Amino acid sequence: MKVLKSVAFALALCLFVAVPAKAQFHFGIQGGIVANDLKFNEHVFDASNRIGFTGGITTQFDLPVIAFQASLMYVHRTSEVKTSDASSAQINNAVYDKDYLTLPIHLKANIGLPGLSGLLRLFVFTGPSFSFLLSNKEYQLSDGSTIKSNKGDIDWDFGVGADIVKHLQLTVGYGIGVTKAAHFFKVGESYQRDVRQNSWTITLGYLF
Predict the structure, then answer these.
(1) Each residue of 93-122: pLDDT tens digit?
(2) Which of 18, 34, 27, 116 lies closest to 66 in space, CA to CA?
(3) If we measure between CA atoms, which residue out of 178, 197, 193 comes closest to residue 41?
(4) Alpha-carbon distance 55 to 204, whole Å?
(5) Chain centroid, CA 188 distance in Å
(6) What does the alpha-carbon distance between residue 144 and residue 55 come to, in Å, rounded to a whole number?
(7) pTM attached to this predicted model
(8) How far is CA 61 from CA 11, 35, 66, 121, in A?
(9) How far does Cα 204 stand from its chain's mean position?
(10) What pLDDT is recorded for position 183?
(11) Residue 117 per-residue DSSP state
(12) Residues 167, 129 contacting (CB under 8 angstroms)
């Protein structure tokens, strides 16, 4: 956890130091929805996407062709999990909810559209997101199986977006779990399965 915090702080510091004085600075707010997708290193049960939400503050440094954006977001992730009991053919459903404080740091490449300067600007982005767990670390399913979340995890994000009339910002991104987000312990078994969290995120923001 200390290593994760140190890396996030170092990247954020480099972002502010590296941006030249002539860059335009923007501050704003963002909100949107998150579709969480749990990935296991071995198939043990089904995990269906459910819609969570996110909201927070963002800063952006604009250069002529690229931009740097760092945000501080509250993220509520939720998934529906289904476990099966082979002996009784019973299927157990549960909703797995987790709350995070997330720091995404993105590099953006702007795509200018002739004749639409100031009205619409497209961009692509990529970069890491550092998430820190706010809710309970351990979650027990109805069949006795347990999911134990790590205190933090790292995603790598890819996405596209649009700046509309310079102030509104719409983004669609997909985050791939780089580190393990949790571990799954099944009743009657002595070993664990690793869990990674991938997610789709759609946000709408306003930059001042």
Answers:
(1) 667 788 999 999 999 999 978 877 778 999
(2) 18
(3) 193
(4) 10
(5) 33
(6) 33
(7) 0.81
(8) 15, 28, 9, 15
(9) 15
(10) 84
(11) T
(12) no
153 is written with which tokens?
């995890």
**What number of H helices and E strands is found in the chain?**
1, 12
CA 172 to each of CA 18, 66, 124, 130, 156: distance values in angstroms, whole numbers, following the listed order? 26, 18, 10, 18, 14
Asked if residues 23 and 63 have their Cβ atoms less than 8 Å apart, the reply is yes
Q: Indicate the helix (H) or strand (E) that contains 206.
A: strand 192-207
Lookup result for tokens 């915090």: 5
Torsion of CA 165, 101, 45, 190, to 10 degrees: 160
Residue whose C-alpha is closest to residue 61's, from 113, 26, 105: 26
Rounded to the nearest angstrom, the gap between the alpha carbon of residue 32 and the centroid of all alpha carbons in its chain is 12
**Residue 172 pLDDT:** 97
N-to-C CA span, the chain: 34
Distance from C-alpha of 182 to C-alpha of 175, rounded to nearest angstrom: 16
pLDDT tens digits along 152-199: 999 999 999 999 988 999 999 999 999 998 888 877 666 677 888 899
